[in-house]
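Appendix B, Record 12. Input sequence as logged:
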Amino acid sequence: MRMERKLIICVIMTLLFIPYYAKDFDYKVNKPGELFIGTPFNITVDIFTAEGDSIFAPEMDTLDIFIVLDITQGKEIIENRELNRVNIKVAPFDAGEHTFPELEFTVKSGSKLTVHKTNSFQVFVKSVLPNEEQGQEPELRDISGPLDVSLKWYDYLMPIMVLLILILVIFLLLRYLRKPAVKNDESFQEPVDMRPAYIIALELLAELEQKEYLGRKEYLQLFFGLSYILRVFIEKQYGINAVEMTTSEIRRNLILENHLEKNEIMKNLQEADRVKFAKYIPTHEKSNEALVWLKRFLKSYEQRYQETRTDEKNEK
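Logged structural output:
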């Protein structure tokens, strides 16, 4: 009798845990045979779970070559199981052969976490768009055949004389310019702007607003300016060469204790990259939000600067 009870308990426990471990994972990639810079493609991920389970999507700021354009997620019940469908729309912004990385999805069922991964795959991205009218790649053709040219002695003499005159003018010009430079070389020193980084950045932002790119709906020029000002601030505030770095390099070199603040910075830099490199056209509201965010972000450092000065005075 005791053995029968133990057997029944084991069968019941096994049946209870079968839905938890029986999770299916499937995904598919919808992309054309050839990709070009800015051409989007979709990745659809289907994850079957038990009802009540939670799914955590991967961090999308780790895609260096690909820009995430949109993420949608839906659910439906199929045969007492919950189908979670995640559709990720991405676009490449660098030519060449690239590897789309694995994507991790974490499923939480009760107190247990299960990680699912997609497979990486190769994508070849071209930099030249096809000829839409003819439906084929553009070809380079000669306008006409080569011509025979017969040169005389004066045809060679004239270029030589012009070249000698240019060399003489350049020599005299360099000699003239180097004289004052030698006298002031020891005393000359390029002035360094010692003001706080947020003041310099706010001054650049005010100059950008005076150009009224937002009012004229010139969003490309606006995002170029916003990205440059943010990079100038990062360079002067944190001492990294952010103006010359790519967004991926800034992510690796920018070390902040406040991870939420770093995520906001990277989100706005990536948004600017979408406009500059991926032919993304933002709405008027999105452009205004980017302008307002940068102004609020820079002014927040004014309060931090004042608090730091107050603490230094109190310590003295």
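The chain has a mean pLDDT of 76.
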